[in-house]
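User: For a benchmark we're assembling, each entry needs the component sequences followed by a predicted structure for the full assembly. Here are entry 17's components. Please fill in the structure.
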Amino acid sequence: MSGSTIIFYLLAALTLVSAVLAVTTRMIFRAAIYLLFSLIGIAGIYFWLQYEFIAAVQIVVYVGGIVVLIIFSIFLTQQAGDELPKQKMGRQLFSALAAFCGLALVLLQIAQHAFVETGGEVVAPTVANIGNQMLGVNDGGYALPFEVVSILLLAALVGCIVIALKSKPEQT
Amino acid sequence: MMEPGLYHMLFISATLFFIGVYGFFTRRNLVTMLMSVELVLNSVNLNFIAFNKYLWYDKMDGLFFTIFVIAIAAAEAAVAIAIIINLYRSHNSIDVENAEELKY
Amino acid sequence: MPGLPLFWRGNEGEAIMPNATYIALIPLLPLAGFLMLGIFGRKYFKNTSGVIGTTLLLISTVLALYTAYGYFFEYGKIDGVYQKLIPLKYTWLQFSEGVSIDMGIIIDPISVMMLVVVTFISLMVHIYSLGYMKGDERFPTYYAFLGLFTFSMLGLVISSNIFQIYIFWELVGVSSFLLIGYYYDKPSAVAACKKAFIVTRFADVGFLIGILVLSFYAGTLDFNTLIERLTSAESTEFKTAVAASFMGMSALTWGLVLVFIGGAGKSAMFPLHIWLPDAMEGPTPVSALIHAATMVVAGVFLVARLFPVFAISSPDALSLVGYVGAFSALIAAVIACTQTDIKRVLAYSTMSQIGYMMFALGVSKYGGEDGLGYTASMFHLFTHAMFKALLFLGAGAVIHYIHSNEMKDMGGLRKYLPITHITFLIACLAIAGVPPFAGFFSKEEILLAAYQSNQSIYWVALITSGLTAFYMFRLYFSIFWNREAHVHGEHKGEGGFAMMMPLVLLAIGAAAAGFIPFGHFVSTDGARLETEFHLMFSIAPVALGLAGIFIAMWLYKKASDKPDKIASSLNGLYKAAYHKFYMDEIYMFITQKIIFNLIGRPAAWFDKNVVDGLVNATGNGTKDISETIKGLQSGKVQQYAIYFLVGVIGLALLFIYWWN
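Assistant: Structure for entry 17:
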C-alpha cells in the first residue's frame, strides 16, 4: 500500500463523510461547511488524479464562489442558530430506500460493465494544452461552446439581477 | 485495499450522487436542497474526469465538459439563490412546503 | 347609347348576337335595388325606397321590351325560324371536360316572353305597392325583397345552364319564403312561409336529382347541348340514357320525371300544391306577383325549357305531366267553388290554370302543327299572368277597402269601387274564356290541342273551364253584388292613382292580349305556327262558360239561401271540397304519425342514448380520470423529484435489460 493510495482513501473518506453530514445535519450553517469540505475533498481527488487545472477551478468556483454565495443566502434568509425542521420519518425512510436502490442498481451496472480503454498517446492536461483546445477553432476546438457558455453566464447575471430586484410599488 | 482505479472513482461518484439525491428528497429548506444539487453536479464532474483519466486519456473532452458544467453550475446557483431570496421576500420562508401554490 | 349597339350583326349566314349588356342589365338592376334598399334602405331611404325600386324596375321593363322588340322583329329570326341565342356565357365552375356550371344568358322566344311578363307584372306590382303598402313599418325591406325576387325570377328565365336555373330556382324560393313571411308577427304567416319553403324544398330535391341524372347521362349541364344530345337518336348519350333502366323506366324518363317533380312543387301541382293556398298570408301584391303570375309558372317554364327532351325522347314523362296537370286543374277548380276566403279562391284558381298550362304541354308534341299545345301553354301563361295579376290586385284593392278576406264581409261594393269593379269584371270574363277577352284565345288553343291528342284530358279540361267560369263569377257577384254594402263610415276611396293605374293597364292587357298572334312567335321549333279558330269547336266551351256564369249569377247576384241549400244537398262532396279534400290532414297524418313516429322517434332515441351517450361517456370518463389523478399535481417539488427519479430509473432499466 503506497502513500498515494492512502491519500486517495483519505480524500474519498473526507468527501463522502462530509457529504453525508452535509445532507443530514440539522444546523444549516454547518451543512454549508460540510459541503465546503466535501467540495474540497473532490478538489483533492482532482489533484490526486493530476488534473491540477480542474482542481484549481473547483476550488475557485465552488469553494470560493458557490459556497460563499450559499452562506450569504443563509445569512439573508435564516436565523443562523436555528435548527432545521425535521422531515417526516416515512419520507426519510422512503428517500433512503430509493437512494440505496438506485445506488445498488448503478453499482451493479458498473460492476457488470467491461470498460474498454481507447489506448493511444496520453495528452497531458496542462494549462497550455487546455488553453489551446479551449479557444481552438479547428476540429475538437471548443471556441463555440465557450462563447455560448459566456452568453449563458451573462444571461444568468442579468436574470439574477432582475429576479432579485426589489420591485417598486406600482405607481398608479 | 487495492490500488485505486476507475472503479473506485465510479464508486465515489455514484455514492456522492445518491447522497445528493437523498438530501434533495429529505431536506425542506431550499438552500439545503440547492446544496444537494451541488453534490449531484460534483459527482457528475468526477465521473467525467475519471473516464477522461482512465479510458480516454488521449483526449481532453471530459475535462472540457467538467469545466462547462462548473460554469453552468455557477450560473445555476446564482439564479437559484436569486429565486430563493425573492421567494423569501414574498413568503417570508424558504421552506418548500410553504411554496406549493402551483398545483391543480 | 352610342357605341353600344342593340346587337352585333355577324357575317353572312352567321347567327346575330344581341348585345348582352342590355340583357344582363335587366336582372341586375333589381339586384342593385335589392342590395341598396336591403343594406341602406331602413336608414336612408325610409320613404323613397318605393320610388327607387320602381324606377329601377321601370328601366328593366323598358330594356326587356326593347330586347323583345329586337329579338322578335329585328334579329331573332333566320330563315323564318327563331334561333336560340347565347349572347353571354361565363364559365363559373368547371367540373370536368364539358361539365361546368356557367352563368349565361339564353335568348329564345320563351325566355324573351318571360322577360317581358316578369318585368311588366313586377312593375305593376311595384307601382301598386306604392299605394297598398304605404305607411308600412318595413317599407324598404318589402321593396328589397321584391327586388330580390324579380332579380331571381329574371335570372331564372334567362338561364342557359341547368344548374344556373337551379340556383335561381332556389333564390326564387327564398324570396317567396321571405315575402310570404313578411308579416312575421302573424303566426299563420310564419307557418305558411315555413310550409311553402319545406314543400318546395322537398320538391327541389327531386329537381336536383333529376339534374344530376340528366347531366350524368348527357355529360353536360348546358341546356342547348343537353337538349341536342338527348333528343337525337344517334348520339351515344341518348342511347345509354335510354338503355339504362330502373324499375321499368329508362334513366332518361326518371330524370325528366324528377325534374318535373321540382317543377310541380314550384307550380303547385297535385299533390305538392298544399303550400299555395297558405302562401296567401303574404301581402296581396306579393301574391299577385309571385303566387299567381310569375314564380308559380316557373315549373311550366322548366318543362317548356326541356320540352324537346320530354316530347322527343320520353313521351311517358310528358304524358305524366299531362295527367298531373289535368287532375290538378280539375281538383283545384272544385275546391275553388267552395272556399270563402277570396284570396284562397284565387289561389286555387291559379293552381287550376297552371294545371291547364301543364296538360297543354303534356298533350303537345314536338314540331310543326302538333306543337300547338306548347304554343297554347305559353300563350296561356302569358294571358294568365295578365288577368290573374289583375284579379289579385283587384282583390287587394277590395281587401284594402274592407280589411277582410272573407266573402261574407263583402257585397255590393260596385258603387264604392267602380274602377276595381270594372277591371275585376274584365279579368273574370277573361279567365272564364268569354270572347273576345284574352283567356278565350289561349284556352281555346289549349282545348283544341287536348282535343286533337287526348280525348279524356279534353273532357276534364272542358268541365274545368265550366267550373272556372262558375267560381270566378261566384267570387265576382259575392264581392260586388249580393247584399247591400255595409261599409264603415270612414271612406278612403279606392286607393290612389298608384293602385288604380296598374289595374287599368292590366285590364287592357287582359282584354287585348288575346289578339297577339302568339303562334307566330312561340312554337316548339321556332318556326311560325298558324293558329286558326274553328267556330264550331268554340261553341261548347263558351256555352259551358256562359252557363257557369249564369248559374253563379242566379245563385249569388242576390243574397239568398240557394247556395246553402245546394251545399247541403251535396253534403259529402261539398264538405270534402271545402276541406280541400283533406289534403292537409293526409299530409299531417303521413308526416306526424308515420314519418315522425316510425323514423323520427327511433332516430331521436338513438341520438339521445347512443350518440350522446358516447360523447358524454368520453367526457365523463376523462373528467373522472382527471379527478383521480390530479392529486399527483401536488405542487410539492420533492414529490415531483421522486416521480422524476423513478421515471429515470425505470427508463434506465428499460434501456439496459429490454433494449438489447
